[in-house]
Each structure stands twice: as structure tokens, then as C-alpha cells.
Amino acid sequence: MAFRTPGLGRRLGAGRTRLVLPALVVSAVLLVAFMLFAAMYTNLLWYRSVGFSSVYTTQLWAKAALFFGAGLFMVLVVGANVVVAYRLKPAYRPLSMEQQGLERYRSVIDPRRRRIAGGLLGLLGVLTGSTVAGQWPVWLAFLNRTPFGVEDPQFHKDVSFYVFTYPFLRLVLGIVFATVVLSIVAAVMVHYLYGGLRLQGPGDKASPSARAHLSVLVGVFILLKAFAYWFDRYGLVHSERGATTGASYTDVNALLPAKTILAVIAVICAGLFFSNLLRRGMMLPGVGFTLLVLSAILVGGVYPLLIQQFQVKPDELAKERRYIERNIKATRDAYGVAGAQVVQYGSQQVTDKKQLQTEAANLQGVRLLDPNVVGETFQQLQRIRPFYRFPDTLDVDRYKVDGSLVDTIVALRELSGAPAGQRSWVKDRMVYTHGYGFVSAFGDRFGSGGVPEFITKDMPAAPGQKIRVDRPEIYFGERSPLYSVVGGKGQQELNYPDNSASGQQSNTYAGKGGVPVDSFFHKLLFAARFQEKNLLLSGAIKQDAKILYNRRPREMVQRVAPWLTLDGDPYPAVVGGRITWIIDGYTTSGGYPYSERMSLGDATRDTVTDTRSAVARQANDHINYLRNSVKATVDAYDGTVNLYQWDENDPITKTWMKVFKGTVKPKSAIPADLESHFRYPQDQFKVQRQILSKYHVTDPSAFYNGEGFWEVPEDPAAQGKRQPPYYQSLRMPGQGEESFALTTVFNPRNNPQLAAFMAVGSTPGGDYGKIQVLQMPRNAQPQGPGQVQNSFETDAKVKGDLNALRLGGTKTVPGNLLTIPFAGGLLYIEPMYTKAAGGAEQQPYPLLGKVLVRFGDHIAAADTLDEALKQILGAAGGAPQPPERNPRQPGTAGPLSPAAVQAINDLRQAVADYEKARSEGDYPKMGEAWKRIKDAQNALIQAQQAPAASPSPSPSGSPSPTGSPSPTPGS
To answer: Strand pairing partners for 339?
Structure first.
């Protein structure tokens, strides 16, 4: 017994070791399987909660079909060739050093060949299936394709062939190509391993059976190449060889016949390889393959190059004119700018004073409140508590207030998290669950102290406010937490803080959104998904509790409509008393024939996307077709998602409506109250302005020469970044009344002057989407945005006003420089904000300081737009202008008048009072101090403009009337 015990122990230990490893492997596989199941099932639960489960199941079905279909095809074809190669192994292998070396591998592999082959083929199938499954949109779009009703000018095929069919055929061809190539590789390896192919020894290096097998495979490969050459002909409509995108002169007259010739030669070459089934020898297949390679080089490469160099380049315009015309037409159609109207403007500027005053009287509602600047102001005045936050970029909308439709700056007071130092899982996930409140302000009005004049504000909103919000809670927003547990029986969520004894008003979520999480199974699933044990263990989760996740509006719409490209700036609107997010959805394609390709990311980049976090950047996808096809909405309280068809003629939308039946509602189903808040989307407009910077030129000769090309100007307030487009209400030439529009301007290429002004109607109705471009006279172009901004900073009077604003270290922040067609010319308006100096603890924010205006050569700065217009129009109409102010600079000699000294002292005291009130958060006193600052600035300006009286001589040695020289502005 003593002798056998150690052996028995070793055997038991070895047995345990053999059991532990499989157990660990099985456990790992089960854990991974459970995590995958938890992810998939919780995704399905979310789709069910928003009523779009068919979108998820359709995707899963399509991915599974492609995964198993492509993977199985690869396994069967490659596996069949491996079996054929093994069965064709020679019965006799000549003795050689090579074969002796291979014998060692054969002795190891042969007993396990089935397992090795099965494992490798399985891995190959999984990799293939995983790769192809990601192409499910290509397959589903092909199966449900819708005709465009437009033919390409070269092959006369419907555009749908290039958008839907051509990508799918290329996908299939790619799969078959990969399968054949891997079959050749696998067959060569098996033939070599078992002696069918030899590198050493006497006689043929390949057995007849191996030669026949590989000849067939290579023949199939070349036959596929013939099909590829044939389909490559259609790909010429996307060629970049010529002066523009699309099949050029060289493509049509050299490369197109070359592709046809190469396809024929490839078919002949494939036939020569197939002939090896009947005869031995590689001479004819070798000749055919050599002919194919030489033809590809000479016919497919050298010949087109010679045509391009010696026929096209010496007379390129004449040769390419026809193809440039095709490109211009296709590009304008594909990007929806074919109907853009380009009219001449600016050659007859009004100078009559009465007519100018009439024009000014019609200039109403100019939006001075810049949504890209006043986010900090909303934050400081309406945040109420530090655990709320407004976005850094606000939104522009329209609301009817007191019977008039006004441009409105809007934002939501979203949750930023539990207060610092009070964080816990229960507070983060079950108490601080949502934001609260819709805040809006007039776009053209300011209150005392330069603060926005709010329409809706405070928390809770006072009764009787002019925009009624019945459901102010924001459970689904751009800053919503990753997930929240809400709605449990008796659960008290923070609704909003108040001055009650408890310090807050609480509520319990009662919306239909969310997934039940009051069962153990669901708790287990979500604990796995979010890797949070408290979801499983916490006793705070009560009966009827729900979990909210995937809550950000843009993400929600992207999930329910994965075929859409979404605008980077969702915006909130109050519709029927409820806060609703509106997101614009685009259909895009890179397959439209002859259309110019561009990077969506590059085309939509500007100051806002580069410096602001609230606006998402677009991916750098290359597109040549764009439509705003869908308007999507998300209810901020219960997360209800609706998709409405907007472009009823878009074939891509119609195709995906066949794929995901019932997910997109018809345009007729859009409620009128909701439609009134729709606006022309910014990203589409940015793409279209990028296109029109070149494609406003429709003459092929001028286009070829680059005559009159434009560019989007640099933002005067952000060097090196494009100026963003601006929403504003204006009256275009020929319009009877003002309308809401999205506007931009153009410079000539490499020229700071202004080339054109562009606007698109943004109010749903007859003018919606109509693009109008006002082209300035080429021989008398006005100044561009950068030059106008420079003129504001260098004008003596305006510079003095700005320097007065900057006293005490206060900074000036330029707002949006608006360009408005006015009286036959262009009116430039820029709000100049002031931001008090101070550290992070004081949290200064922008307030309106001055309004800067320019019309023609006349410039003014005033506290209000009306005052600035009076100065401008008086000067433009021939009225006497006030004398130019020349403020004394520090260090210049000459006494100041007593009025100027008093104004400076008043200004200093007012600034000090303002700083004190701001540090104490006393807003009424801040407004009072700001009014005194304005009064003192005006008094100082009047004192400096007043004619200086000759100082009377004083007795020798007596002091001057003001004593020692008083400090001057800026000292």
C-alpha cells in the first residue's frame, strides 16, 4: 500500500488537472455566451419599448443569413477543393530529400487531418461570415431597390443600378474571388504535402491530376476576372481621371473599349486553362495568361495614358466639354441644388433717405442673441442649481408670442449629475434621473443690463408664461445619464428644487418608455449589461420599476433607423405642451453616376463643430448624393420615437421603407403644430453651399477655367475655421414679407471680398427648401466678413466704444456677424458682448454691450439696433454726420473737461458696483450697475465730442481747474 499510494496520488492529481482545464474552458464559453445573450436580449427589450422591434429582428435575420450563407459557401468550396486535392494525391512519390522532409509532416498531420481541416475551415468560415455580415445594408437595399427614374448618360442605366445593384454585384464578386483564391492556396498546400507538386526530383513537377485540378481553379479565377473587367466598365461613371468626376474622354474612348477587350481575352485565357482537362501541357494556358498580362499593361494602361497625354491634354476643354456638362448636371441633381436661383444683386444701392427709412421700418426681428455665445448666460441666469446644465450651443426656433411669430433662442435645463460630495449609486441612478424645464428668449430683445429677455424661464415656470409647457421633465436628452431606474412603487425622484421644507419637489416616473426591471431575470440581464451588481442586489428597486437606457435622442433615432445619416444638431421644441426633440435624417449614397464626391465630415466642419460639444461632427464618409428624407422626433418625457417621411420622391427612402415596413409614417401624418417647428437642416445646407461654391457655374468653359469659383469665408471670430450658417428672419429681394431662412455668404477664392449671399427658405410651406443666391457685381464687390470685422475694430468711433467696454479688464466677445440684404445693398450687424474679468469661481458670462452696424461705407455702434440704424441711415441718406471722435490715449497731453472727468469717475464706480454685485450673485443690482455703466459711457462719449473751450490763463503757479491731470480712459 505504501508503494502504490504515491502513484495513486499522481494519477488522481493528473485526473484533476485534466478535468480543471475543460471546466475552465466550458465556464469561459458559457460566460461569453451569457454576456452576448444579455447584450442581444436587452437590445431587443429596448427596441420593443420604443415600438421598433422589427428593425432589430430584421437586422439580426439579415446578418445571420449573410454570416451562415457566406461562411458556408466558403467552407464548402474550399473544403471540397481540399478533399479533391487529397483524393488526387499520387499513389507513388519518388524518393528525394524533399519528400523525406515532408514525410515527417505527413506522419503528424495525416492521423489528425479531419480535425485540423475542420478546425481551419471552421475558422475560415467564421471570419468570412463575420466580414460579410456587416454588409447587410447592401444586400437588403438590393433586394428592395426602387428605380430613380433617371438614366446615366453613358450606359443609359437607371441610377438605381449604380446605387443598389452595382455595390451588391461587387460584393458577390469579391466573395467569390476570395473563395477561389483561398481554394487555390489550399489545393496547392495539399498537393505539395502529398506529393502532387514537387520542387525537387526528376520528371514533371506536377502530377497530371494536380495540374488538371489547379488549371481548373486558375481558369475559374481568370473567368471571374473577365466578369470583373466587364463590370468595371460601369464603374467608369465614378472615374476621377478627367477634369471632373465621371467617365471622361479617355475613359469612354480608350478605357471602355480596353475593358471590353480584356474581358474577351480573359474568357479565351480561361478556356485555355480548362482545356488542360483534356490534354497535358501548360504551353497554351501559359501563352494565354501572358497575353492577358501584356494586354492589361498595354491596352488597359499604356494606351489610355497615351490618349490622355497626346489627344486630351493639348485640347482638353474641347475633348472634355461634353463630360463636364454631364458632371455639372448630375452633381446639381444629386445634391438637390438644381433649382437654386442665382440672381445679380448690389449694383443699385438705395441712397434716398426716405426710402432708406422705409426699408428700416420693414426690418423687424433681427436676431441679435447669438446661440453660440449666450449658452454661458443661460447657464448663469437659469441654471438655478449646480447639478443642472445648458449646452454650450443653443438652438434657434420660431414661436408665436402675442400673436406674432418671433425668432426664439431655446434650450433645455438638463441634468449634469448629483451634487459633488453627495454621490451614491441610489442618488445617481434613482434620484437624480432627469432634467427639468424649457427655457426660451427673444432673439431680438434684451433686458436691463444686456441680459436676454426670457419668454419662458425659472423652475418651476411661473403661470401664464407665453409658451405653455405641460410636461417639463426631461428623461430623454442630450446629457441624460447612461441609465436610470425610475417609476418604482413609492420611488421619489427629484423633480425640481424649491424653497419648501424638504428643499425639493419629488415625483415618480409614469411614462410608457423604459423596460421593466422589477424581476430577477431582468435585473440579472441588466447587471451583466452595465456590469453593475447593485442592479441585482439593491432593495431600493421596487415593484413596477423601469430602467431607461439608450436615452440620447440622436442615438435613439440612429438605432431605429440605421439607414439614416443624422444631422449633428438635434433641437428641442414645445409641441402640444410637451418637449419634443427634432432630428433631421438624411439618405446618402456614393454611387450616383457623374456626381462630384465629397467628404461629409469636411464639408460640414465649421467654428461650431470644431469648438462646441453640443453639435456632433459628421463622419468622413465620401458621398455624392444627399437628401433630407426623414424628420424624426423623440418625446423628452417618455422617449416615444416617430419617423416621418419628408422627401416623398427619394428612392432610397422608399427602398428602406420596404425593408422596415411600417417604421416610417407618411408625410401626411405630421401634426401641423409639429411641422411649424421644422427647419432646413444645417448639415445639408453646409454640403449644398460647398457644392454651390463651384457648381453655381453652369457653363462648361467657365467651369473648366475655374472662373468665378467661391469659398466659404473664415469666421471673423475664430481664425482658421469656416463661418457657420445662421438662422435668421429676413426679407429677400422680391419677397413681400420676412421669412425664416438659413443663410451664408461666399468669398471669391483667395479673396477677402464678398462674392455672394445665399439663403434657403426654412419655414415649411411653399418657399421651404428654395435656394436663392445673390451674386455681387464682380467689378464692385463689397467687403467680406473678415474685412467688415476689421473695419469695426479700426473705426475710430467704434474703437473708442469698444475700448470703453473693455475697462476694468472686461473682455469683448463678438457675436454672429449677420449679413442681410437691405436697400439694394448689404447690411452687416454684429452684437458685441462683454464678459467681465474674473476667475472660475466668479463664472463671468456674456452680456450685450454694443450693436455694431455697417451699410456701405458707413459704420456705427450703439446700445440698440434702432439707435445704430438711425446713425447709419442718417449718414447714408446724406444727413450731416457727427464729428469723428478722437479719444485721448494714455500719455497724450491736454486736460480733460470736467464733464469727461465726472463721466470717468462715474464709470469706474459703476464698474466696481457691478463687480461687487456679480460676486454676490445680486442680479437686480447688476442690472442697475450695468445701466449706470451705459449712462457713463454715453456721457463720456458726449464729453469727448463736445468742442473743447479755450482754457483761460490761470495765475502763475496756481493749479489747473482740475488739479493734477486726471486719468484718461484706459488708464
So the answer is: none
Residues 291 and 405 in one domain: no
Is 381:857 a contact under the CB 8 Å cutoff? no
Q: Which three cell numbers stand for residue 318?
A: 474641347
Phi and psi, residue 255, nearest 5°: -75, -35
Residue 969: the pLDDT is: 32
- b/e for 287-305, b at 16 or more Cβ within 10 A? ebbeebeebbeebbeebbe
Q: Mean per-residue pLDDT for 286-306?
A: 89
Based on the fold, state whether residues 711 and 860 are members of the same structural domain: yes
User: Do 408 and 325 lie in a common domain?
Assistant: no
- HSE at residue 394, side-chain half, CA atoms within 13 A, is 29
Examine residue 78 and state whether it is found in any structural domain, yes or no: yes
CB contact at 8 A, 376 and 614: no
Nearest to 591 by CA among 303, 205, 166, 250: 166
Q: Which three cell numbers stand for residue 558?
A: 440612429
3-state secondary structure 2-43: CCHHHHHHHHHHHHHHHHHHHHHHHHHHHHHHHHHHHHHHHH
pLDDT-derived band of residue 895, with 50, 70 and 90 as boundaries? Answer: low
pTM: predicted TM-score of the whole model, two decimal places: 0.86
With contact defined as beta carbons under 8 Å apart, do 690 and 603 qualify?
yes
Residue 184: count of CB within 10 angstroms of its CB: 18
- Same domain, yes or no, for 727 and 862? yes
Q: For the chain, what is the domain count?
A: 6
Average the pLDDT over 5-10 and give the result: 47
When comparing pLDDT for 405 and 908, which is higher? Answer: 405
Residue at 968 is within a domain: no
Mapped onto helix, strand or coil, the DSSP state of residue 65 is helix
b/e map 818-847, b = 16+ CB within 10 Å: bbbbbbbbbbbbbbbbbbbeeeeeeebbbb
**DSSP bridge pairs for 746:** 756
CA-to-CA distance for 836 and 821, rounded, in angstroms? 34
Q: Does residue 95 form part of some domain?
A: yes
* DSSP for residue 722: B
> How many Å apart are CA 547 and CA 45, to the nearest integer?
11
Q: What is the pLDDT of residues 683-726, one digit of tens each?
A: 999 999 999 999 999 999 999 999 889 999 999 988 889 999 99
Residue 283's pLDDT is: 78
Could you give the CA distance from residue 582 to residue 511 in angstroms, rounded to a whole number?
Answer: 19
Helix (H, G, I), strand (E, B) or coil at 511: coil
Q: Are residues 252 and 289 in the same domain?
A: yes
Q: What is the DSSP letter of 961?
A: T
Domain that holds residue 83: 57-205
In a domain, 893, yes or no: no
Q: Which residues contact 852 (CB under 8 A, 6 or more apart)?
A: 792, 798, 828, 829, 830, 831, 832, 859, 860, 861, 868
Residues 6+ apart with CB under 8 A from 965: 895
**Residue 457 · residue 382 · CB < 8 Å:** yes
Please state whether beta strands 771-775 and 341-344 pair in parallel, antiparallel, or not at all (unpaired): parallel
Residues 182 and 215 in one domain: no
Q: Which of 170, 205, 240 is the last residue of a domain?
A: 205
pLDDT tens digits, 259-270 = 999 999 999 999
Q: At what angle do helices 283-297 and 208-235 cross, to 10 degrees?
A: 20
Query: Contact at 8 Å (CB) between 152 and 327?
Result: no
Q: Which three cell numbers stand for residue 229?
A: 473587367
Task: Give yes or no: residues 928 and 864 share one domain.
Answer: no
Strands (E) in 373-437, as ranges, are 388-389, 395-401, 404-412, 414-415, 435-436
Work out the end-to-end distance of the chain between its first and last CA atoms, rounded to an integer number of angstroms.
106
Are 643 and 743 found together in one domain? Answer: no
Neighbours of 575 (CB within 10 A): 17
Give tens-digit pLDDT for 613-635.
889 999 999 999 999 999 999 99
